[in-house]
Amino acid sequence: MEDDIHIPTVNHDPFTVTGSCELCSRELNTAELLSIVMKCVNFAAIKHKDQRRKDEKETPYINHLIGVANILVQEGKIYDPVVIVAALLHDIVEDTNTTFEEIENEFGTEVCNIIKELTDDKSLHKAERKRLQIQNACNKSRKAKLIILADKLYNLRDLQENIPVGWSQDRVKEYFKWAKSVIDKCRKINFNLERELDLIFAERVSKDREICTCKKSSKR
């Protein structure tokens, strides 16, 4: 009978199994969560398949996304699947032809909203986008800030080992300075990640002092 036909609706929260009442609803079990995370890794790998980092080896870009998610889990002790999935997708709208609608349909409204927080307006000049990242960082959600911390930690560590092709030492120094300005607007979110970032910043300051031409000139 037509009256008995069930018309399925789009579930915008794939991390919860919705029943006919609140008592029937439940969070996903471990196997179901793992399935979503692996779906996300595969989704990101396909979308970013032709993209490379700017180092000499042209490292596949997916390494960065997995690395950021890994930092959140291993060092930040963040086990929220929404944060991990959003970390794996944090550059996907900005750097590929993926739409926010597609993200919401595949991974839910909350993940989509975090991606919106982390996506720059590519119509703006790069300097303006970087300025806005500093200005707006303090207004981001806690989950978005966690991804910002892990993303900057990954990038700064990478810069310590692999300077992008064409980058001068002055540009590297400016990136460190800019990254710290962003991080300072995301404080009191995760002690472990902030501690690692502060160690990197301290190490950079020490290195800059060693190679400072002003210091060398004063010794003559």
Automatic annotation (TrEMBL):
It comes from the Eukaryota. It catalyses: guanosine 3',5'-bis(diphosphate) + H2O = GDP + diphosphate + H(+). Its cofactor is Mn(2+). SMART domains: HDc (SM00471). The keyword Disulfide bond does not apply. Its EC number is 3.1.7.2. Residues 61-156 form the HD domain. InterPro entries: HD/PDEase_dom, HD_domain, MESH1. GO terms for molecular function: guanosine-3',5'-bis(diphosphate) 3'-diphosphatase activity; metal ion binding. It holds the Pfam family HD_4. SUPFAM superfamilies: HD-domain/PDEase-like. The keyword Metal-binding applies. Keywords: Hydrolase, Manganese, Metal-binding. ppGpp hydrolyzing enzyme involved in starvation response. Belongs to the MESH1 family. This is Guanosine-3',5'-bis(diphosphate) 3'-pyrophosphohydrolase MESH1.
